[in-house]
Amino acid sequence: MARRKKIYEGKAKILYEGPEPGTIVQYFKDDATAFNAQKKDVIEGKGVLNNRLSEFFMTGLNNIGVPTHFIKRLNMREQLVRACEIIPLEVIVRNYAAGSLSKRLGIEEGTALPRPIVEYCYKDDKLGDPMVTEEHIAAFGWASQQDMDDVLALALRVNDFLSGVMMAVGIKLVDFKIEIGRVYEGDFQRLVVADEISPDSCRLWDMETGQHLDKDVFRRDLGSLTDAYTEVARRLGVMPKNATQITKPTLIN
Ligand code: TMP
Ligand code: ASP
Questions:
Q1: Given the CA of residue 177, which atom of ligand 1 is nearest to it?
Q2: Domain span at residue 172?
Q3: 0.85 cut: is pTM over it?
Q4: 226 in ligand 1 pocket by Cβ < 6 Å?
Q5: Does residue 180 belong to any structural domain of this protein?
Q6: Which of 9, 31, 36 to mutate to test the pocket of ligand 2 (most atoms within 8 A of CB)?
Q7: Ligand 1 in contact with 67 (CB < 6 A)?
Q8: Ligand 1 pocket member 99 (CB < 6 A)
Q9: Is residue 62 situated within a structural domain?
Q10: Which numbered atom of ligand 1 lies nearest the CA of 214?
């Protein structure tokens, strides 16, 4: 069998050429990185969990009319997605202060924000994904004003959807990051939610205890990342407990 072509390898995923033109296979690795890959580890089962969780969120978004790149999950670690041209921005939506916002503005983590705040970072690992404004985005031609109106609308719809889904299972959506891609259909382009939506790219806190159920567990050494992601998956009914554990054959007496 011919080996499929690798298109791109990132920190947490690999993209392969898909079976048909305009499609891509997105493979979720177990690699975890933080602080622009200064901190690294391999967390067994993380890729399987994120593949499932991203499928769950993207399918939900598709179902309520928020377009995404997601087509279908192929297996434990792979999903088929539409090929798109990624706008080089990390679109961050925040409902509560945390992380870099708390640091930058001196606001205590967990403080409710007066309204959702949307921020943009320029996707460039060498520069450490610096924050930019719409002025930079327009001046450097990364996206048009029309694109940015659509990006903002998409980001806020994703926020409403994710906040509701998480609230229903006792989890507070503190903030998250999405990426947006352009899909071409004839002469037209459409913007879609791309990349992944998973606990790697969200801050999720248990509503009662405040326990972190996201990548901060890894960033801040707060315990088992797999346990945290499994708990999110369990509450959402996405996969049974221990489904990521590889079971060895056992002897039956
Ligand atoms: P921040 O507080 O570190 O700026 O992160 C805001 C949100 O964006 C948080 O949910 C984590 C997510 N995020 C990513 O998905 N990738 C990144 O590279 C960074 C820095 C944050
Ligand atoms: N994704 C970034 C990295 O891999 C940073 C982060 O998520 O904290 O380094």
A1: 8
A2: 85-206
A3: yes
A4: no
A5: yes
A6: 36
A7: no
A8: yes
A9: no
A10: 10
pLDDT at 253 over 90: no
Average pLDDT over residues 169-186: 97
DSSP annotation of 199 reads: T
Count how many domains the chain has. 1
Locate the ligand 2 atom nearest the alpha carbon of residue 39 and give its number: 9
Domain assignment present for 65: no
pLDDT average, residue stretch 198-222:
98
Contact (Cβ atoms closer than 8 angstroms) between residue 216 and residue 197: no
Q: How many CA atoms lie within 13 A of 70 on its CB side?
A: 27
CATH number at residue 154: 3.30.470.20
Ligand 1 pocket residue status of 16, Cβ below 6 Å? no
Position 247 scores a pLDDT of: 53
Give 175-189 as a DSSP string. EEEEEEEEEEETTEE
What confidence tier does 239 reach under pLDDT thresholds 50, 70, 90? confident
At 240, the pLDDT band (50, 70, 90 cuts) reads low
- Report d(CA 88, CA 120) in Å as an integer: 10
Distance between Cα 33 and ligand 2 center (Å): 5
Tell me whether residue 150 is in a domain.
yes
State the residue for tokens 């609308």.
153
